[in-house]
Amino acid sequence: MDAEFVVIPSREVDGYTEENGRRIPNVLAGKGYFSWLEAPIVQDIIVDRLERDAKAPISDIVDAVFYYDEYDTFKDAD
Fold first, then answer.
1. How far apart are CA 7 and CA 67, in angstroms?
2. Considering only Cβ atoms within 10 Å of each terminal Cβ, which end of the chain, N or C, has fewer?
3. What is the pTM for the complete model shown?
4. What is residue 73's DSSP assignment?
5. Which residues have a Cβ under 8 Å from the Cβ of 67 and sit 6 or more positions away?
6. Residues near 49 by Cβ (< 8 Å), separated by ≥ 6?
7. pLDDT tens, 23-37?
8. Contact 77, 53 (CB under 8 A)
9. From the CB of residue 45, how many other CB atoms can be counted at a distance below 10 Å?
10. Rg for the chain (alpha carbons), in Å?
């Protein structure tokens, strides 16, 4: 699965548009991008995972991010 992730600082967002039932920054509207998680949430997920295991591999961190996106909660330690 290939994906491109775009991070836009909130100070650069001039408004949002509703696409596919989710809010997306106007600058990305109509370009095939999908709204995902806000940066502070992703940061919290990373911090949570590293607090559980300071040497967690990147694959575990990515898995935790996708878990949060699907279940709207932090993944418990395995």
1. 19
2. N
3. 0.66
4. S
5. 74, 75
6. 56, 60, 61, 64, 75
7. 888 988 898 888 778
8. yes
9. 21
10. 14
What digits encode the pLDDT tens for the residues 52-68? 999 999 999 999 998 99
Which backbone phi and psi does 39 adopt, to 5 degrees?
-55, -45
Three-class DSSP category at 60: helix
Owner of token pair 């949002």 = 16
CA dist., res. 10 & res. 73, Å (int): 23
41: its two tokens: 């949430």
pLDDT class for 1, splitting at 50, 70, 90?
A: low
d(CA 74, CA 31): 30
